[in-house]
């Protein structure tokens, strides 16, 4: 039962009239519709689509073959290895000459990190191999091919054709 104040009761002459008004109000009541901001959700959808597209574009570009893939594979097959250190600027320059193709050198086991785990000292393995500085290229029989070399020099030392 709804309790009405004195002023509200004066508006209605009888209980039946009050019930009638209450029933009319119930029948005429409509729930407010939730507001939907289409522009807001459209902009979120566009941003999401751009992010997904960028991820797929980066994955596609990274999956393309590198310029020196066949040369890098030949260097791996020759048994030559590059000894480097993560902190060595000349090593970064040497890797940059290969570009995306350096991943073949790494995956093929032709790259040896001489300062693993973020240290700045040579690992015992590199010391045992006779590495005195980085980068150092060595042939399969342990002959030092040279330090930082151009791809042309490395090509002549490993007998790998440079494309």
Summarize the structure in short.
It contains eight helices and four strands; from the N terminus they run ααααβααβαββα.
Task: Describe how the helices and strands are arranged.
Elements: H1 6-11, H2 15-28, H3 38-63, H4 69-78, E1 81-84, H5 89-98, H6 102-107, E2 111-113, H7 124-129, E3 136-138, E4 144-146, H8 151-158
Parallel strand pairs: 1-2
Antiparallel strand pairs: 1-3, 3-4
CATH architecture assignment of the domain at 69-158: 3-Layer(aba) Sandwich
Please tell me the overall pLDDT.
Answer: 85
Cα-to-Cα separation, first versus last residue: 93 Å
Strand content: 5-15%
CATH homologous superfamily title of the domain at 69-158 = Glutaredoxin
Indicate the low-confidence ranges by residue numbers: none
Q: Which range best describes the helical content: under 10%, 10-25%, 25-40%, 40-55%, 55-70% or over 70%?
A: 40-55%
Structural class by secondary-structure content: alpha+beta
Largest sheet: 4 strands, mixed
């Amino acid at each position: 039962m709804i309790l009405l104040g004195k002023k509200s009761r004066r508006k209605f002459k009888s209980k039946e009239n009050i019930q009638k008004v209450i029933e009319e109000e119930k029948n005429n009541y409509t729930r407010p519709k939730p507001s939907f901001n289409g522009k807001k959700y459209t902009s979120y959808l566009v941003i999401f689509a751009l992010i997904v597209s960028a991820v797929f574009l980066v994955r596609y570009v990274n999956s393309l073959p590198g310029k020196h893939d066949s040369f890098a594979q030949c260097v791996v097959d020759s048994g030559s290895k590059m000894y480097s250190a993560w902190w060595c600027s000349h090593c970064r320059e040497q890797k940059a000459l290969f570009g995306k193709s350096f991943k073949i050198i790494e995956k093929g086991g032709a790259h040896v990190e001489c300062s693993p785990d973020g240290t700045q000292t040579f690992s015992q393995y590199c010391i045992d191999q006779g590495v005195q500085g980085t980068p150092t290229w060595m042939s399969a029989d342990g002959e030092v091919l040279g330090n930082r070399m151009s791809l042309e020099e490395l090509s002549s030392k490993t007998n790998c054709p440079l494309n």
